């Protein structure tokens, strides 16, 4: 979820860990799960299909399959967390709340789920409950996620205090500053919001950003703000979780008042990536979009002294395309890991064409590693399959390497937008020009 959640399971990592826990030598269809319970291996398959449907954006199928997994293994906290993610992605906030609470009743110390539980509570207007959940997990939440959640829960002053400290920290990025700017906006301090936002947003786009936040600050429904930040569309009706999936009282464990960070869990063997010898250039995460702008207020706010944050480099826009990319990346939102559930919604619709731009995904010391890497990455990020995988040999003073890239973009800007979205989803990439890249037949998915 966030750096503090290094030992917590993401929705995707959870299924992989469960699958890896099936003991090859076990007799019969059941084996021990990562939660110390017995799990029917057939339900692991159902849950894996649910996760795949969730990644493809088929939320109805994800819900149906996740409900089947929980029905078959009602005491598995991981399956219930997956069910909560499916409900959340489908915009069924009340059902997601039930599933998350059930998962936390079985395994209390899951700070990643605490944040998601707080978000679905906020989406239902349950600010008091959300604040209690956030307070209990305060020590294990990323300050920028925690501060943003506080602002959404109706405590912008507290959020400003948390986010100002985070913005002063070494290495604070544009997301931290934009979360702080949004907190100022929700507090009604529009001058402070504009001052902080201007550190990362080009001057010619700053007024539009403030206009967007004016709409954001006055939601028509309780769910509007959470929906805007996560890219989720609220369901027209939520029938609730089926009664057959209700967690029996005798099956629960009492949740701890203060979650404890769990011990790190070793990644399953099949998740290990081939050795990458060329690192991708860093790209800032790109959170989900905020609502459309409305008319700017006529009167300017009263003068305000800039808040004491770490000074960001002044924008140096040489081309309009660069300014547009920078403005898109500098937006408030959840950290990349805590937004695991929402990665599919963050991939932009980019044009297909014959641009010379390619998005490089990695470089490896052996040609077979390219096939292995593509198989792994294309399964994890389904959006990669929309483009043509390519390989290129690269000779350097350090030896011969084999680059894995995708091509088929309409323009350099489309390639950059896609790479930024992949970075936001937790992947690594950078954009370069074609250099001997040729489409190849890679490992089948």
What descriptors fit this protein?
Alpha-Beta Plaits; disordered N terminus; 445 residues; Serine Threonine Protein Phosphatase 5, Tetratricopeptide repeat; 9% strand; single chain
Q: What is the radius of gyration computed over CA atoms, rounded to a whole number of angstroms?
A: 23 Å
Q: In CATH, what is the class of the largest domain?
A: Mainly Alpha
Number of domains: 2
SSE string: HEEHHHHHHHHHHHHHHEHEEHEE
Average residue-wise pLDDT: 74
CATH architecture of the largest domain: Alpha Horseshoe
* CATH-defined fold name of the largest domain: Serine Threonine Protein Phosphatase 5, Tetratricopeptide repeat
* Backbone shape: globular
Question: How would you characterize the largest beta sheet?
Answer: 5 strands, antiparallel
Side-by-side strand order of the widest sheet = 6-3-5-4-7
Share of helix, binned: 40-55%
What share of the residues does DSSP label as strand, in percent?
5-15%
Q: Termini distance?
A: 27 Å
The CATH H-level homologous superfamily of the largest domain: Tetratricopeptide repeat domain
List unreliable stretches of 5+ residues: 1-36, 251-306, 309-325
Give me the number of helical elements: 17
Number of strands: 7
């Amino acid at each position: 979820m966030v750096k503090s959640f290094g030992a917590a399971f993401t929705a995707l990592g959870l299924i992989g860990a469960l699958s890896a826990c099936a003991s090859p030598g076990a007799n019969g269809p059941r084996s021990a799960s990562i939660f110390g319970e017995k799990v029917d291996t057939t339900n692991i398959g159902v849950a894996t299909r649910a996760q795949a449907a969730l990644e493809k954006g088929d939320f109805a199928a994800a819900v149906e399959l996740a409900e089947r997994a929980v029905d078959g293994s009602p005491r598995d906290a991981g399956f219930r967390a997956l069910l909560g993610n499916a409900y959340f992605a489908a915009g069924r906030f009340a059902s997601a709340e039930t599933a998350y609470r059930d998962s936390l009743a079985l395994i209390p110390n899951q700070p990643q789920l605490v944040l998601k539980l707080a978000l679905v509570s906020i989406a239902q207007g349950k600010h008091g409950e959300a604040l209690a959940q956030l307070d209990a997990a305060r020590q294990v939440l990323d300050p920028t996620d925690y501060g943003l959640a506080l602002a959404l829960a109706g405590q912008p002053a507290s959020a400003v205090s948390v986010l100002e400290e985070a913005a002063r920290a070494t290495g604070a990025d544009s997301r931290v500053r934009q979360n702080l700017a949004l907190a100022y906006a929700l507090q009604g301090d529009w001058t402070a919001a504009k001052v902080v936002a201007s550190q990362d947003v080009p001057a010619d786009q700053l007024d539009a950003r403030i206009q967007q936040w004016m709409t954001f600050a006055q939601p028509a429904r309780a769910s509007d703000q959470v929906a805007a930040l996560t890219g989720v569309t609220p369901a027209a009706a939520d029938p609730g979780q089926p009664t057959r999936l209700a967690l029996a009282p005798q099956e629960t464990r009492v949740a701890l008042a203060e979650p404890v960070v769990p011990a790190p869990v070793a990644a399953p063997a099949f998740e290990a990536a081939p050795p990458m010898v060329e690192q991708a250039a860093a790209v800032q995460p790109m959170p989900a979009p905020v609502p459309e702008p409305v008319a700017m207020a006529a009167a300017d706010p009263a003068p305000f002294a800039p808040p004491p944050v770490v000074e960001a480099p002044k924008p140096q826009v040489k081309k309009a395309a660069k300014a547009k990319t920078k403005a898109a990346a500098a937006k408030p939102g959840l950290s990349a890991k805590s937004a695991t559930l929402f990665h599919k919604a963050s991939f932009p619709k980019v044009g297909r064409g014959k641009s010379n731009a390619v998005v490089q995904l990695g470089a490896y010391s052996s040609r077979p590693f390219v096939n292995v890497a593509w198989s792994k990455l294309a399964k994890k990020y389904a959006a990669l399959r929309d483009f043509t995988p390519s390989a290129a040999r690269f000779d350097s003073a350090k030896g011969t390497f084999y680059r894995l890239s995708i091509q088929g973009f309409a323009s350099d800007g489309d390639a950059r937008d896609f790479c930024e979205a992949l970075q936001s989803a937790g992947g690594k990439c950078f954009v370069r020009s074609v250099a001997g890249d040729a489409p190849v037949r890679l490992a089948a998915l």
